[in-house]
């Protein structure tokens, strides 16, 4: 078991009509002006944005708005948001949306509270001294950004997708109403379920001994998401299933499933980030498309963990042949992906990748030779090329 620090300062308000508490929660932050950040037209069409604005107005809180966040949020919109915050004297950011909106809000929070170019933080050139306080109203259960210390931004100059983690960006509060996810297309719902699973699997499939308690929480979380993803495939307005998935999303990425571990592997995420940067694919679908190829490439370096995953999560019967058990577990997870219409290859993801593009993806993934990725097996450029080729 590894030493760990567990920090979850985000206040969670969970349940039906929880968004009605927005004005009160923002007022408690003693702010003067709110920057309301959101994505596309769905927040407007659903009436959510109007309800949020009325709640703010009911508490006498001024606000300014900026929409337009897209999946794999762009640095250009972040920079626009920073300028608006500085010009309008904003002192609180309210993100209404999913992980992309929250990630964009966090980046804006860094940029508005610090001098210089916000990309420096994501490019690992320096660290922020502060971040504007942030709250969120979650509309997609997936990324767990509402309770995490991380955000991911895509720089259109070179299409570099980079993540950055710092406790300063953790949300002050997160409003979680499962009803707000009813209108999501099934594809987005299932992409979210894959993302939740992967946030847990990245920590669980590591290269060390975990705490029994942490393993048990992680295994239950993964089984719960798999069960309820299947339910939502046929019953998209099943409140209980939506609630289970939404809460799992927050727990999967708030640090709980990493307590006592070595920090996790995260290679699958890094490999997918480059696909997202180059091809703008949905994050969850991209993870599903590469995970099996990664798992088959690395499992021998941590075979006991993969056996535990196969037996305790995927329900593979115990045998004396560890390799057979592991491969059956990997195949079972891929069968689950297919059962909810998620891809298990780049071709199924809908992209054709050339050898030249694979080389570029691998080069970017290693930060142009400055790093390896993963802890189960440290992956350099040639390893990553082989995984992309296997996933093709």
UniProtKB/TrEMBL annotation:
Domain spans labelled Alcohol dehydrogenase iron-type/glycerol dehydrogenase GldA: 9-178
GO CC terms: cytosol
Keyword check for rRNA processing: no
InterPro entries documented for this protein: ADH_Fe/GldA, ADH_Fe_C, ADH_Fe_CS, BDH-like
Any GO MF annotation of the entry: butanol dehydrogenase (NAD+) activity
Classification via CDD domains: BDH
PANTHER family listed in its UniProt record: ALCOHOL DEHYDROGENASE YQHD (PTHR43633:SF1)
UniProt-recorded name of the protein: Iron-containing alcohol dehydrogenase
Organism: Sporofaciens musculi
């Amino acid at each position: 078991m590894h030493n760990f620090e567990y920090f979850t300062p985000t206040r969670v308000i969970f349940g039906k009509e929880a968004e009605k508490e927005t004005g009160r929660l923002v007022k408690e932050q003693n702010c003067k002006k709110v920057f309301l950040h959101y994505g596309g037209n769905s927040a407007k069409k659903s009436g959510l944005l109007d309800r949020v604005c009325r709640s703010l107005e009911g508490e006498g809180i001024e606000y300014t708005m900026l929409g337009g966040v897209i999946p794999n949020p762009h640095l250009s919109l972040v920079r626009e948001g920073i300028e608006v915050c500085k010009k309008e004297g904003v002192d609180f950011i309210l993100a209404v949306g999913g992980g992309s909106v929250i990630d964009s809000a966090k980046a804006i929070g860094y940029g508005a509270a610090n001098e210089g170019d916000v990309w420096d933080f994501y490019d690992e050139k320096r660290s922020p001294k502060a971040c504007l306080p942030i709250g969120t109203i979650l509309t997609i259960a997936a990324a767990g950004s509402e309770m995490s210390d991380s955000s991911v931004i895509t720089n259109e100059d070179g299409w570099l997708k980079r993540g950055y983690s710092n406790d300063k960006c953790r949300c002050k509060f997160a409003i979680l109403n499962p009803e707000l996810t009813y209108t999501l297309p099934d594809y987005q719902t299932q992409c979210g379920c894959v993302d939740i699973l992967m946030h847990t699997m990245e920590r669980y499939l590591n290269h060390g001994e975990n705490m029994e308690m942490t393993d048990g929480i992680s295994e239950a979380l993964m089984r719960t998401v798999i069960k309820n993803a299947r339910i939502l495939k046929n019953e998209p307005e099943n409140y209980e299933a939506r609630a289970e998935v939404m809460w799992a999303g927050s727990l999967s990425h708030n640090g709980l499933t990493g307590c006592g571990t070595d920090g996790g592997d995260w290679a699958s995420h890094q490999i997918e980030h480059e696909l997202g940067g180059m091809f703008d694919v949905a994050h969850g679908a991209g993870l599903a498309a590469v995970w099996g190829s990664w798992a088959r490439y690395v499992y021998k370096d941590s075979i006991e963990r993969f056996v535990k995953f196969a037996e305790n999560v995927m329900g593979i019967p115990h045998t004396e042949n560890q390799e057979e058990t592991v491969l059956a577990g990997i195949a079972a997870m891929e069968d689950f992906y297919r059962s909810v219409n998620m891809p298990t290859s780049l071709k199924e993801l809908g992209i054709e990748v050339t050898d030249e593009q694979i080389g570029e993806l691998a080069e970017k993934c290693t930060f142009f030779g400055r790093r390896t990725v993963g802890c189960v097996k440290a992956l350099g450029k040639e390893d990553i090329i082989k995984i992309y080729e296997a996933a093709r």
